[in-house]
Amino acid sequence: MNKYEVIYIIDGEVDEAGRKELIEKFNGIITANNGEVVKVDEWGKRRFAYAIDYKTEGYYVYVQFNGDAELPKELSRNMGNSEQIIRSQIVRLIDKKHSVKPRPVRAAAPVEVAPVVEEAEPAVEAVEEAPAAEAPVVEG
In what order do the strands lie in the sheet with 85-93? Predict the structure, then answer.
């Protein structure tokens, strides 16, 4: 059996009795399909960051369960058919012993950089200015 978790959002306008009925319905779908509900956590009513189908708040429910590979498909199909469910997401949990190990990161080969040689500025010799020669005056 695989481990899964599902988070779904019930329409905020559904009353408490309707919410309890929906939660029991989806837990019943899990158990009817040879699954096992491990944990149900009701996060409560929360405001959305943006409107979804003109709705601004919803009731969040988190469920952790075990089941066969076909169970998430069936659960997702039933949640998609329900008009009271705004969004849902089912994720398979992976055990640490079966998880993929990250590849080791290779250090980049060191790059040789030529030393920077500062060029000396050419020496500026002081130029003495000669007195301006007087221009000859032409009479005319």
Answer: 36-52, 55-67, 2-11, 85-93
